[in-house]
């Protein structure tokens, strides 16, 4: 049971504010914002998602640069409130197409309508985009999606693959397309995030893939859908008899609407997708896999007050695939004053930078095709002699990237079957893969 | 149109901009009020939006109330909704004007469109104006009977709103019976869920004054009701499922078949993508199996994978909430998670609140087989750019070292930290080396060699400086430079701002003096002089004390200041078991995130609908053995420092053997409630005292008869059968009050023989209006704390009771607000105790 719900902009303005129970004194939004703002300045890092000030618990999630906040005086389940905040954000996004400060400000009356139906007197009533449709009467005012890239995994499809309509994922589930009827289509996105740590000698110390099969349906009449995964998919360590090449997940969970009747037999998920965006299945894998990138990094003293850094990057995926927005960062000794970079001859789309404030080397690569190798050399100048081990003063190297149409786990959507209403019914179906770095680290 | 930009976010109505805009709106609304021209609704919409946006950013637009109501006569539903929102916000402050809205809201409550009916009813109940309550009753009654589920859903919550405006109206109009009927019969699950929420909230707040309400509340936990919910659980929304699962977690099944049935039914809830559903299910599993050690263990194994999946999917905020719970379980049963340590490695991009939890988990799961790898990993974090985390990591290494696994390798690493050229690393490492030396003096040789190389100029943090100075004093015979370093520090006495450091300096120079007098004498003189002139009271006093001690006798002084020391075997735990158990009982709540039981951060009335046990019986399932029952003193002193500390490890292993002491919490409140004849008076007791106990009294020559003879016979003592005392108060009182009675008595040997778990005894004592607040132990020794209150006044009795089941003897200690009544109470207590076990 919550008491208030509000959304604050990055600067702390109320964009919507709803008091459900009138039991918390005025000014809670200001109290909250000040606390969050000063948390970091007190050297404590980010404010935790839940904290208590004078008997009032404040919950918040950050979505698209906005703070979604709930307050309560009761000892509630923190998971429930945080899940709820995240869900409210998603429902709003379903309605507005794009969720950002601008779209929220333009549509705040609609958001109030939603909030009225989602929560009554602090108790959750319903959060299904689908059900809410019949209770919401404001038409969304659609903001220009092209101007501001929308956040979230959807945005990554806008760069790489031309055949994908870039705005599709940002379209509202309720608004009609300008000048036409709704397009029948369904998106199934397999999104994987890789966490990996390489030792200084290049061995994999830990690795994990956290994946989500995300669905966004614009199909009318809610036909049943069958989603078939790899038949030899194993779940649970030491579970089924795993042969070479089989994908073994550690564990997974499913959306409410998924029927698992035939999952154990042929790894098929059956569901009637509700409107809007939702995760069909989340999974986690710690089975060893082939990492898309190998990084080797080296730092060596080169005379007094000097050192050299060499970072080598090898892309281990197929040459038909291209990774985007690659960024490599490496913290350097605190007494580093200057760097001169030395890129390979003919390198294109590379950026190099030395971030003076936090003494970090940054190397950006716009695109990396599979099977290629890139090297960066950098000469460091120090302001003082290093007494200890220079390797302990620098690193580790971390990397972020996005690789469309690639997944590291090997999990596949074999087919996506839509129950046919008629012979001519043939909606668009998009099955897309993307892999991102979560924590991709090489130690020195 | 968007809310105006932030410039006048905090604008009060007095601010010129806000004011003129509001009066502007007022005149525009007036113009539109009576206008029925086509298209006028669109202009109204724009105006209403403006009003709402001002309301949102905190400008007071309540002065528009009249105009808004006048404009609300419309069939446009968007307009209606905005108007409802406005009215709900300002009605409370304008009760007279709110009356204006009643008319159109009541009319809308009878609209043909169920949605309009529902919306109007919701707004009507949201007015929060006490003198309009009479207008609510009729529409609510109709709403509860409406054939549309949306209207019923709104009406049920409406009843709850009515209760908060006027509890008596809500109870008198018999709405609760209607809700109960709907809860058990309505086809719509959201209506059912709302009934459950509303009834729980209402009955919980009524329970303290109405016996009927507390009976009703307990009836929610009866088998038919719980099964009714369980059988339909998948029809409920995911949020309502959480509500049901919370209820089920409080249910006490009659046998293990029932337990397994429930667990099988809920098994697939663990695969739900919503973390709240999974955690609520885990709570059920945990609570159900508390008394079945093996199954309880299996539950831990079973929930590991789902929890880890939730931690790594979802947003950082969601994963934090789940991780806090995983943290609790890891701390509770580290041995179960010792192979999963790699999951608790920190990722470089995680927020520090996540990293902190993970570091504590890594510390907890460290054991013989994984320590090396964990410490290696922690050492990587020590060089981290995130300095607070680097510090925490070093502390974690130290804690692991103090847990005694593979100390050898760890000491080496700690010494490497000292050689790293980062001042915060050196500082943290120094503090740790000091603690390590207190526990393992045998390492002094290796450590001192490295510590001796550290220049005290590079150590600035008071704690680290104090640690360094302590080592200089303690090991001055091994550290060649010690007297000179100390001398140097003393020369800069005035620049040393920390009193803690100056205190340590005094002691260290004393110790050094005893070992190397000629070299230190000068420094000692300077230190004592500086100390005597110090403005800080403690420093001054210590210097004076040392000075006089030396004057008196140097060898005595040495014996006082530098006696032979024993190695510290276990550092004090910062957190009592009692508190940990309470937090565990409140699984899936904020208690877990804050690492505090709810009574420390909520008011009584806000403890939530599930705090059933709190007001009546305070039973924490006992996991502590008799000798570890915590003397309450330490608890609140350490409330703030909830980090688990060094003694943790041993307990973790104990937990497996203690497992059998888990007992399902007793919910036998009904029995005690209905037992109205539970006030016992002194005169009712046959024979006044038991032969056995009076015999002992005589034997000990305590002479109680004389005492009663000299004092006038106290009036018969009646106890309050619904006495309430929260553990915090209990602990406080226990600490403050003196022991007014301490004696030994016997209990019925047959009764006590069957006392494998104390729960039966607790129920028995409760029927005599003596309530248990904490208990623990394993056969044959049990330790229990009871309390009771006088019926007429709030005078409390506290009892510590140690029962030995093999000798059928009991030791009791009584503390009382009213000391004169403690003898009478003691008799009552012993009588009640002696009856235990007799049919």
From TrEMBL, chain A:
<keyword id="KW-0813">Transport</keyword>
<feature type="domain" description="MHD">
    <location>
        <begin position="183"/>
        <end position="443"/>
    </location>
</feature>
<keyword id="KW-0472">Membrane</keyword>
<dbReference type="GO" id="GO:0030131">
    <property type="term" value="C:clathrin adaptor complex"/>
</dbReference>
<dbReference type="InterPro" id="IPR050431">
    <property type="entry name" value="Adaptor_comp_med_subunit"/>
</dbReference>
<dbReference type="InterPro" id="IPR011012">
    <property type="entry name" value="Longin-like_dom_sf"/>
</dbReference>
<protein>
    <submittedName>
        <fullName>AP-4 complex subunit mu</fullName>
    </submittedName>
</protein>
<dbReference type="GO" id="GO:0016192">
    <property type="term" value="P:vesicle-mediated transport"/>
</dbReference>
<comment type="similarity">
    <text>Belongs to the adaptor complexes medium subunit family.</text>
</comment>
<dbReference type="InterPro" id="IPR001392">
    <property type="entry name" value="Clathrin_mu"/>
</dbReference>
<dbReference type="InterPro" id="IPR022775">
    <property type="entry name" value="AP_mu_sigma_su"/>
</dbReference>
<dbReference type="GO" id="GO:0012505">
    <property type="term" value="C:endomembrane system"/>
</dbReference>
<keyword id="KW-0653">Protein transport</keyword>
<dbReference type="InterPro" id="IPR036168">
    <property type="entry name" value="AP2_Mu_C_sf"/>
</dbReference>
<dbReference type="GO" id="GO:0006886">
    <property type="term" value="P:intracellular protein transport"/>
</dbReference>
<dbReference type="InterPro" id="IPR028565">
    <property type="entry name" value="MHD"/>
</dbReference>
<dbReference type="Pfam" id="PF01217">
    <property type="entry name" value="Clat_adaptor_s"/>
</dbReference>
<dbReference type="Pfam" id="PF00928">
    <property type="entry name" value="Adap_comp_sub"/>
</dbReference>
TrEMBL record, chain B:
<feature type="compositionally biased region" description="Polar residues">
    <location>
        <begin position="671"/>
        <end position="686"/>
    </location>
</feature>
<feature type="compositionally biased region" description="Polar residues">
    <location>
        <begin position="7"/>
        <end position="26"/>
    </location>
</feature>
<dbReference type="GO" id="GO:0030131">
    <property type="term" value="C:clathrin adaptor complex"/>
</dbReference>
<keyword id="KW-0653">Protein transport</keyword>
<comment type="subunit">
    <text>Adaptor protein complexes are heterotetramers composed of two large adaptins (beta-type subunit and alpha-type or delta-type or epsilon-type or gamma-type subunit), a medium adaptin (mu-type subunit) and a small adaptin (sigma-type subunit).</text>
</comment>
<dbReference type="InterPro" id="IPR026739">
    <property type="entry name" value="AP_beta"/>
</dbReference>
<protein>
    <recommendedName>
        <fullName>Beta-adaptin-like protein</fullName>
    </recommendedName>
</protein>
<dbReference type="InterPro" id="IPR011989">
    <property type="entry name" value="ARM-like"/>
</dbReference>
<dbReference type="GO" id="GO:0006886">
    <property type="term" value="P:intracellular protein transport"/>
</dbReference>
<dbReference type="InterPro" id="IPR016342">
    <property type="entry name" value="AP_complex_bsu_1_2_4"/>
</dbReference>
<dbReference type="GO" id="GO:0030276">
    <property type="term" value="F:clathrin binding"/>
</dbReference>
<dbReference type="GO" id="GO:0012505">
    <property type="term" value="C:endomembrane system"/>
</dbReference>
<keyword id="KW-0813">Transport</keyword>
<feature type="region of interest" description="Disordered">
    <location>
        <begin position="1"/>
        <end position="26"/>
    </location>
</feature>
<comment type="function">
    <text>Subunit of clathrin-associated adaptor protein complex that plays a role in protein sorting in the late-Golgi/trans-Golgi network (TGN) and/or endosomes. The AP complexes mediate both the recruitment of clathrin to membranes and the recognition of sorting signals within the cytosolic tails of transmembrane cargo molecules.</text>
</comment>
<dbReference type="InterPro" id="IPR016024">
    <property type="entry name" value="ARM-type_fold"/>
</dbReference>
<dbReference type="GO" id="GO:0016192">
    <property type="term" value="P:vesicle-mediated transport"/>
</dbReference>
<comment type="similarity">
    <text>Belongs to the adaptor complexes large subunit family.</text>
</comment>
<feature type="region of interest" description="Disordered">
    <location>
        <begin position="646"/>
        <end position="686"/>
    </location>
</feature>
<feature type="domain" description="Beta-adaptin appendage C-terminal subdomain">
    <location>
        <begin position="717"/>
        <end position="834"/>
    </location>
</feature>
<dbReference type="InterPro" id="IPR015151">
    <property type="entry name" value="B-adaptin_app_sub_C"/>
</dbReference>
<dbReference type="InterPro" id="IPR012295">
    <property type="entry name" value="TBP_dom_sf"/>
</dbReference>
